[in-house]
Design brief:
The structure holds 2 protein chains of 2 kinds. By secondary structure, chain A is of the alpha+beta class. Chain A has 11 helices and 24 strands. In chain A, strands 4, 6, 10, 11, 12, 20 and 21 form a 7-stranded antiparallel beta sheet that branches. In chain A, strands 2-3-22-23-1-24 form a 6-stranded antiparallel beta sheet, with helices on both faces. In chain A, strands 13-14-15-18-19 form a 5-stranded antiparallel beta sheet, with no helix packed on it. In chain A, helix 4 packs antiparallel against helix 7, helix 5 crosses helix 6 and helix 9 runs antiparallel to helix 10. Chain B is an all-alpha fold. Chain B contains 11 helices and no strands. The longest helix of chain B is centred in the middle third of the chain and has 39 residues. Chain B has 2 domains: 126 residues, Up-down Bundle (Four Helix Bundle (Hemerythrin (Met), subunit A)), CATH 1.20.120; 162 residues, no CATH class. Classes of the chains: A alpha+beta, B mainly alpha. Chains A and B meet through helix 4, strand 8, strand 11, strand 21 and helix 10 of A and helix 2, helix 9 and helix 10 of B.
Chain lengths: 563, 330
């Protein structure tokens, strides 16, 4: 140590730094020497800023502060704390509609929170700052430790301390056997039990010894775990750069071809190329949903299944595939997941002359668990333009409080409740419009009516007749490809194995020392040491002792209590 | 598939029977606790206890002479009550296990599909964790602090969280349910016991500090009946060190399932976010124990915060925060 230890500590060979941080109590000298390098935990240096260090000194200080355990701890707390708002506020990544609604309902607060990134926490700069600092801190801590561990793994176990009785685990025995034979037996037993062994012959003037060490996998596991965390980060980055995610609604009888234009929403990664979309196509032949009838969970979903005809690539033979929740369609390197469903009422509009001006099944979006669904039928080809806005109810009911609503998600008693609007749909205004919303500015409501399947309604102004022909079901599919997911799985499994090794294995040392005693006997001392908190080396010292050619045993056994 | 109502009713009956047995067990542990004399909290006496333990081989967790001494026929006060309480707790746990089994048989699936079933399983896991530890260590002093939370969990389950036996929503129909949720249930059991040990550590530690300084402590009566604070701290740590890899596994299993059900392995759904927060909090605890100035009491507070995030992930997220995991059936 120099006169400024807090500065030069990092420059020293880390292997020579006494590792006091794992000690429960200040250890005795002998124990300290024996425990040297038993733990590779970083040494806590005082974190005060040193005086007048110059730029290099400040950089060193900053780096050491960043890579200290205390900083890592604070960053971990910050990471946990920063995640909390992501679970409280709706997030753009998962619920963009909820975010818009939240901001509309609380305009001032919403805009303020939006500027802070509260609706996009996990993509916000401050969240990234925390985890990037944490990973830099991690790398700065792990890399030197890895180098140190590499040296330790290749080096020999440290020589036996002169005074073994100062170690926490100690046995003293006497033997009739030759000193060298005791040492050979000890070394043989230890090697057989996969300890790393070093020996000094019994002819040594200070007495011969065997030193052994085990449990290197603790630190190896610890380092592997932390490096694997970097692997997970890499996998997440890869997935969000080169992957894509799209959602598409398909009505029964309709088809979907995998091009960007056909998706209802499409989120590509920055490095994603549309040419990477696999050229598959499918038709939704039928969709079936079943729900619990009666009981406490009346109306709860029980069974969803979608029957598809899939063409894996142009010209390939179409195949029938059933897709369910937890059983996605796997085609062309992507998976298509069944994520939602609903009803699409089929509406025909005839003008005053009886000519069909509109006929289609229009997707209505479910608003509650009983599938009270809302939607808009836009008919641009009449003059003035016509829109039908309202509800589709699979099991229709009306009451004073809730108005028209559905009481069960299955189609027991279907009906539509529609309001007719005439005027300008605003489709030519150039502003993007949602197909599920009606911009009523520039339109006049001319009447409302309720229709059951097959029923028609002549609009009050006589301009058109609306027929509710029936309905089909629709299903929505999430199509995703994440090129990072295999790496993420591999890295997290490696991380878990490393973690288990670092927490469940303990690093420990044992020594055997022989000295000639009075009357021609050999005095044998066996001692052990571990610095892992939840482990004891007592059982192994005991087993080693029993394996030695011992005749008498003096009872100077010391075993500290388990902490 | 239909629901077998006879088995479902039998399940309910067994759960209530187990609650009666847990109550008897609780009374036994309470009686034992009250009649135990306890130890001297001053540092000299504590050191003596450690030394006495060292001579006995240093394996027992408890060194109190009234519980840990040799069995010479005459049982020390409180020991018989604790033994009876432990036996009754075994009975209660077997009844609860049978109740969970009947529930599963009645619906032909793993009974882990809603908060009621998860709560029963968590209570079972807490009790079983304690009983398994009790086979190897003398932890009778801990019994009362395990039985009370188990009873509260079961009480909450049968009143607020009760859900009729029924089939699952489609999202839960996967073998990953068994893997992911049972790992989470085992973690719930073990983290609860660890949190109890951490809380008691704080009490014992304060008791010892106050006794050393000659100051009064309103919980001295409790502190006296607990093992040395270092033992409690070590026990809390060992459980977390053992369970943290399993919690990691539970999250990874959930991610694999999520990839298979929703097309992404991680989407910051509230449940996922809070599982992450819990993971980070326990990671912080493990780091705190290796950081100078953070060992001991501060680390214990971190462990308790981590457990609070675990509890919030279960109760708070299921009930308060909407998300993909909202099939609690409440």
């Amino acid at each position: 140590m120099t006169d400024r230890p807090d500065v030069d500590l990092a420059a020293e060979d880390p292997a020579d730094v006494p590792t006091g941080t794992d000690a429960v109590a200040p250890p005795a000298d002998g124990e300290d020497a024996a425990a040297r390098r038993l733990s590779t935990a970083p040494v806590e240096a005082p974190a005060d800023a040193p005086v007048s260090l110059g730029l290099l000194g400040w950089l060193r200080w900053g780096w050491r502060t960043l890579t200290s355990m205390r900083t890592a701890l604070i960053l971990l707390f910050l990471l946990a704390l920063a995640s909390v708002p992501g679970s409280i506020f709706p997030q753009r990544g998962t619920a963009p509609v909820d975010v818009t609604q939240w901001i509309q309902e609380n305009p001032a607060l919403g805009r303020f929170l939006d500027r802070l990134g509260m609706f996009d926490v996990f993509a916000s700069p401050w969240f990234a700052a925390i985890y990037l600092l944490l990973f830099v801190s991690l790398a700065g801590c792990v890399l030197p430790r890895a180098a140190q561990h590499w040296r330790i793994v290749r080096s020999r176990p440290p020589a036996a301390p002169l005074n073994l009785s100062r170690l926490p685990e100690h046995r003293r025995l006497e033997s009739d056997a030759e000193p060298q034979r005791v040492l050979d037996d000890a070394a043989q037993w230890l090697r057989a039990h996969r300890w790393r062994v070093d020996t000094e012959a019994a002819t040594d003037p200070d007495g011969g010894w065997v030193a052994a060490e085990k449990g290197y996998a603790r630190e190896t596991g610890n380092l592997v775990f932390h490096v694997a965390l970097l692997g997970i980060l890499l996998a997440v980055a890869l997935g969000s750069l080169a992957g894509f995610r799209g959602v598409v609604l398909v009505r029964e009888g309709s088809s979907f071809a995998d091009t960007r234009a056909q998706y209802d929403s499409f989120t590509p990664g920055r490095a994603f190329d549309d040419a990477d979309l696999p050229p598959f196509a499918f038709t939704l032949d039928s969709f079936d949903a079943q729900f619990q009838r009666g009981g406490q969970q009346d109306g709860a979903a029980r069974e969803f299944s979608a029957d598809l005809t899939v063409t894996p690539e142009p010209g390939a033979e179409p195949e029938k595939v059933r897709v369910e929740v937890n059983e996605p369609l796997v085609v062309g390197g992507v998976k298509a997941f069944l994520v939602g469903h609903g009803y699409a009422p089929t509406v025909t509009v005839r003008d005053a002359d009886g000519e069909i001006v509109f006929r289609d099944s229009v997707v209505f979006l479910p608003q509650d668990g009983a599938f009270t669904s809302t939607g808009v039928v836009k008919v641009p080809d009449t003059v003035p333009q016509l829109a039908l806005q309202g509800f589709f109810l699979p099991t229709a009911a009306v009451d004073d409080v809730r108005g028209p609503h559905s009481t069960f998600p299955e189609d027991d008693d279907p009906a539509v409740f529609l309001a007719a609007w005439t005027g300008d749909l605003g489709l030519d205004s150039g502003r993007p419009q949602s197909v599920y919303r009606l911009d009523t500015e520039g339109m006049t409501r001319i009447g409302i009516d309720a229709l059951r399947p097959g029923e028609s309604w002549e609009l009050p102004d006589g301009s058109a007749t609306v027929t509710f022909d029936g309905y089909v079901e629709w299903a929505s599919f999430s199509v995703a490809r994440d090129p990072g997911k295999e790496l993420a799985l591999l890295a997290s499994v490696v991380a878990m194995i490393g973690l288990a090794a670092s927490l469940l294995i303990s690093r420990r040392r044992v020594w055997v020392r022989v000295n000639p005693g009075p009357g021609g006997v050999t005095v044998v001392e066996v001692a052990g040491l571990t610095r892992s908190e939840h482990a004891s080396v007592a059982d192994e010292v005991e087993a080693l002792t029993e394996a030695l050619p011992v005749t008498t045993s003096t009872s100077t056994t010391t075993t500290p209590p388990r902490a | 598939m239909s629901v077998d109502t006879t088995l479902a009713q039998a399940s309910n009956g067994l759960v209530y029977a187990s609650m009666v047995a847990y109550t008897v067990s609780m009374i036994g542990f309470a009686a034992s606790f009250a009649s135990t004399k306890g130890r001297d909290l001053t540092p000299a006496a504590t050191a003596q206890g450690v030394a006495a333990d060292a001579e006995s081989g240093g394996v027992a967790v408890v060194t109190r002479t009234d519980l840990g001494g040799p069995d010479d026929g005459a049982l020390p006060p409180g020991r018989r009550a604790a033994n009876i309480a432990t036996s009754v707790m075994w009975l209660a746990t077997i009844l609860l296990g049978a109740g969970i089994l009947m529930r599963g048989l009645s619906v032909h699936r793993m009974p882990l599909g809603n908060m009621y079933e998860f709560s029963l399983a968590s209570g079972f896991a807490v009790a079983l964790t304690y009983l398994v530890i009790s086979l190897r260590r003398d932890v009778r002093w801990l019994g009362i602090f395990v039985v009370i939370p188990v009873l509260l969990t079961l009480g909450l389950a049968v009143t607020v969280l009760y859900t009729e036996a029924a089939q699952l929503v489609p999202a839960l129909k996967s073998y990953w349910l068994v893997i992911h949720v049972s790992a989470a249930v085992i973690c719930a059991g073990a983290f609860s016991i660890s949190a109890a040990a951490s809380s008691l550590y704080l009490v014992a530690d304060t008791g010892e500090r106050r006794a050393a300084a000659g100051q009064p402590y309103w919980l001295a009566g409790l502190a006296r009946r607990l093992p040395e604070s270092t033992r409690l701290d070590g026990m809390a740590y060992r459980i977390i060190a053992f369970m943290f890899p399993l919690w990691t596994f539970a999250i990874i299993a959930g991610a694999i399932w999520a990839e298979n059900a929703w097309g992404r392995y991680w989407g910051w759904d509230p449940k996922e976010t809070w599982a992450f927060i819990t993971w980070v909090a326990y990671a912080a605890y493990l780091h705190a124990r290796a950081t100078a100035g953070w060992k001991g009491r501060r680390a214990a507070y971190v462990a308790l915060v981590a457990f609070a995030t675990f509890l919030f992930n279960y109760f708070g997220v299921n009930i308060l925060l909407p998300g993909l995991h909202s099939y609690g059936g409440v």
